[in-house]
Amino acid sequence: MAYRVKLNLKKLKIWRSLKVRLFLIMFLMGVIPSIFMRVGILENYESRAVDVRTSDVQTQLRIIANHLITYNYLQDTSSEMIGAELEQLSNLYNGRVVIVNGNLKVVKDTYGISEGKVIISEEVIRCMKGTNTVNYDEVNGFIEITVPIVETVSAQNATEDMPEGTEIVRGVMLTSVSTDSIVMTMEILNRKAQIVEIIIVFCIFAIALVLAQILIRPFDRISKAIGEVKEGYTNESISVPDYLETEHIVNAFNSLLVRMKTIDDSRQDFVANVSHELKTPITSVKVLADSLLAQKDVPAELYHEFMVDIAEEVERENKIINDLLALVKMDKPAAELNISVVNINTLAETILKRIRPIARKKNVEVTLISKREILAEVDEVKMSLILTNLVENAIKYNKEQGKVDVTLDADHQFFTIEVADTGIGIPQESQEQIYERFYRVDKSHSREIGGTGLGLAITRSAVLRHRGSIRLESVEGKGSTFTVKIPLTRVLV
């Protein structure tokens, strides 16, 4: 039942409101203490009133107990003065007074019910031994008090066994005092306290409502500002520094806004670059084809030369499209990685064996340095892309008689692939942009070398899909070193 109530509360949108929750917290924080205060005051009053009533009655009972000894009332109950005092005490507190002698026999009962009877109770027995007792019966509304009737041995009656000053309990005064007046006073106080409490509740309700509205205003301003950005009225950063929490939310949103602007600008640049890169080979093909069509009796050699150029441009177009498709696939969720246990050393040897003929054409020496055997849980295809792109770039942008060193190493958590070349290097100002799509450091030189400008973008995306990192160290004119660090197992991600 409680679970269903909780489930229904979660479904209510109003319960999910921060304003409502703030209101309820402040309202309850004000109301609950006032309720406890009222109950505490009443209980304290009751306890205090009972203590005062008990103290007053005990004082009067001790006075009367002395009179009982003085007038020898336990043996002779004919004293009208004692009788009047007992009746007065009984009427004053709307109670009952019973006097018991040393033989536990009732010699006086202001109700006239138990006179002549023997009374045996724990309270009377304890009082006979000189111990006062007080019992408060909250249910029936009375206080029961026992006071010993004590006789002090005078000098005339003193003996060796009982020297002067010895106190002897001759009897017990058993008194029941009504607490009706206390209960009535408590009821009056309770009614007045409830009226005050209702007024306090209304005041707390109004204060909590106003404070909740005031406290939630910064969040309303954030919501309004975000709405304006969403509707396109503005794309400026928002500022609501009222609270530390709102400042954190605003800072996070502003960072997201900057990120979205960057992505939007990148998307526009990407579309422009794609259009340009795809249009360039087509334009070349069209120019070559138009040249052939414009000429009559084209020699076979020229025709063959033009067709070779056209085929190269088509191949270039095909490579751009394939790289774009690879990049799009790389942008999909990491869950689509085809993870398996791969021997990185064997994979690197296979890739370098395939690439070495390209290196030999440029007189570049490629060396594999394996410091230890590495078995890792990775996507083999994407790891091949990473190695291939890095090594091919190291060869393409190298010098004559240059070197490329591929170093494999691992610790207990990560493995690293380091590709170092002795090539032309990358200027410091361009090192942060080399992973952008279609970005080239030297466009004219890059045209001669070939490529699509997507290799490093694909490489970085593949590394990030493996929850790894890629780092560049480069000195212009001396060479570059790319270091890839990837977890050995998927548990680390």
UniProtKB/TrEMBL annotation:
Location of the Histidine kinase domain: 273-490
One Pfam family from the record: HisKA
Entry's transmembrane regions: 20-41, 195-216
Signal sequence residues: none
Biological processes, Gene Ontology terms: cellular response to phosphate starvation
A GO CC term assigned to this protein in UniProt: plasma membrane
Listed EC numbers: 2.7.13.3
GO molecular function: phosphoprotein phosphatase activity; phosphorelay sensor kinase activity
Location in the cell: Membrane
Annotated InterPro entries: BphY/WalK/GraS-like (IPR050351), HATPase_C_sf (IPR036890), HATPase_dom (IPR003594), His_kinase_dom (IPR005467), HisK_dim/P_dom (IPR003661), HisK_dim/P_sf (IPR036097), Sig_transdc_His_kin-like_C (IPR004358)
Keywords: Kinase, Membrane, Phosphoprotein, Transferase, Transmembrane, Transmembrane helix, Two-component regulatory system
Alphabetized SUPFAM superfamilies for the sequence: ATPase domain of HSP90 chaperone/DNA topoisomerase II/histidine kinase, Homodimeric domain of signal transducing histidine kinase
Enzyme class: transferase
Catalysis: reaction(s): ATP + protein L-histidine = ADP + protein N-phospho-L-histidine
Entry keyword annotation includes Transferase: yes
Name listed for the protein in its UniProt record: histidine kinase
Protein source organism: Parablautia intestinalis
Lineage summary: Bacteria, Bacillati, Bacillota, Clostridia, Lachnospirales
